[in-house]
Write a structure and sequence with these properties.
- By secondary structure, this protein is α/β, with parallel strands linked by helices.
- The chain has two domains: 186 residues, 3-Layer(bba) Sandwich (Glucose Oxidase, domain 1); 33 residues, no CATH class.
- Helix content is 11%, strand content 23%.
- The protein is built from four helices and 13 strands.
- The chain has a nine-stranded mixed β-sheet, covered by helices on one side. The protein has a two-stranded antiparallel ribbon with strand order 2-3. The chain has a two-stranded parallel ribbon with strand order 6-8.
Length: 232
């Protein structure tokens, strides 16, 4: 028996987006009522109109997000985003929801704070759980949050991971405009999924991870329906 666990946030009209970027607009290009005349009263359809940036809700970054000549969303192979063996790594308590946002050392997630063997990360989707997603739909979500250390990013690359997912809003320290974590991971063709949720519902291992993006040429980032599949 298979069980699916939702790991992505719902996208709603005018919901908060990445700070400084526009909110999504979800409206109707054509309503049910307006469409009736087109079908002589025999049928009616709602045609949605969605206007949003790629960095909305739970989204995936392609290498093109950082590098102009790197693979874009249309070039990502399905085996990199569908059915990946997953592993959840719990961050140190200092990096969880009650972290001191002003203290960079408490927000930084370092390798020594995570329990894993290098061999068990190869070819996996590595999902880092902090509990920050509990702040979703509040202003507190967009406060300076957890971020990955450069040493951890280098270790993940060395271990040959396929994808890195986090339950907070930026793998980088938002105050470091060089964005070293995005740079390192995407240069190594390691995909990034930010703003995951519900990682507390997952076991440490024994699940498959999915985060399939739309196949958009020149697409850099896009919301995904991220979920896990567990055999029981």
């Amino acid at each position: 028996m298979r069980r699916f666990i939702e790991l992505s946030h719902v996208i709603r009209d005018d919901m908060p987006s990445y700070p400084g970027l526009p909110r999504p607009k979800i409206t109707a290009y054509l309503t049910h009522e307006e469409s009736r005349s087109r079908y002589e009263g025999k049928a009616e359809f709602w045609i949605s109109k969605v206007e949003m940036i790629g960095n909305t809700a739970t989204y995936l970054d392609s290498p093109f997000h950082r590098f102009p000549n790197a693979p874009d969303l249309s070039s990502i192979p399905l085996e990199s985003v569908a059915g990946l063996e997953g592993i959840v790594l719990d961050a140190d308590a200092d990096n969880a929801d009650n972290a001191d946002n002003a203290d960079e050392s408490k927000r930084e997630i370092r390798a020594e704070n995570l329990e894993f063997e290098k061999a068990e990360l190869k070819d996996r989707a590595v999902l880092i759980r902090t509990g920050w997603d509990q702040r979703w739909e509040s202003e507190a979500y967009w406060e300076p949050g957890p971020f990955l250390s450069s040493e951890l990013a280098e270790l993940l690359i060395e271990c040959g991971v396929k994808l890195v997912g986090v339950d907070f809003w930026n793998v980088d320290d938002i105050f470091d405009l060089s964005r070293p974590i995005h740079t390192k991971l995407l240069a190594a063709n390691i995909l990034i999924v930010e703003n995951l949720c519900n990682l507390s519902a997952l076991p440490r291992k024994g699940f498959r991870f999915y985060a399939v993006p739309l196949r958009i040429a020149k697409g850099s980032s896009i919301p995904v329906r991220a979920f896990a599949e567990i055999d029981e």
